Amino acid sequence: MNRRHKAGGPALAWEAKSVKHSLLYKRDFYAGGLMILFGLFAAMNGPRYTLGTLMHMGPGFMPTALGVIMTILGVVIAATALTEREGEGEEGILPEHPQWFAWGCILASPLAFILFGKFGGMIPGTFMCVFVAALGDRDATWRGIVGLSAVVTFFGVALFHYVLKIPMPVLKWDFL
Length: 176
Hints:
By secondary structure, the protein is mainly alpha-helical. It has two domains: 9-83; 100-163, no CATH class. It is built from six helices and no strands.
């Protein structure tokens, strides 16, 4: 069926509606746009600090370089979303049945790290951060959550306190 008319009115309106409809349901298009925004923000604010050279990098070098890389990747992701065929990769921005509890647990886990890390140190902060985030998994068992939290805490404290020497106490008792 040929949808083109001499004036182009209804055909152009149909094509514009089709493009608008296909962009509204492409997650990759929005993800690419968000990466472009974050990349541009970093690339524009990085040069406020000294850039330096490749041999002597200044504090603005990495944010600027990463911002440019993020912008390029965002353009590639958004472009691939535009080149997909009609009906391919069309999903809403939110899933059909969002798992609000899981999202809440993941968002609350850094708050748990801040709270328990401030009053208890790195061990309770890390343990509770992983514990709260793992609560969002519907298939997780209590035993699995505690085991995962313990293993991540062990390796996290070993890496950040003993290897990287992050100045945060391992344990402190300010909450008593």
